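Quick one: structure for this chain?
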Amino acid sequence: MTSADGTRQPGLGRGLLFALFAALGALPFLLVFAGLLDPDTSLGLYMLGLTVVHVVVLAPSWRHALTTPLLAAGLCGVFALCAPGLATATLGALVVLGITRSALLHPRPFARALGCEVVLALPAAGALALLYDGSLLGSALAVWSFWLVQSAFALLPGRDVARAPDAPDPFETAAAAAERLMQRQGP
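Got it. Here's what it folds into:
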């Protein structure tokens, strides 16, 4: 969905598709990297990489899609350098999502942003922890559930867009135009 200023708003469909492709991508990623690293670390690195990709998918404009992921990649890179386990990577992913999503891409007042991110973080982390069992299928389901919960970001209330006081109400403008048209027509 595009707003009046040409920026894309977060969409539920985009989030659901991302969750599906993230889960499907977990299978080949883990098949390749689980042999090199333990399953916990490889899934943690995958989650951090998905966080950067998610920032690109969620970006409201091309300018944001090019700049904000650089910050996300830098922050996720710091977590990735310490070869985190799944718990640390999930915490890092949630922090990076909170900063990039609610502060930079779709800004909200601080209290609302913090509340929205906590409302999404707790069930997402809980679903991930509940479904992750170290197996290939359990890992894919855990990734899917995490991003499925995160897709609900599109359903949360955005920032209040206040119109300038001198900007006319669109309904009143349309009503005045209709009135002028009817007066020209005459009886």
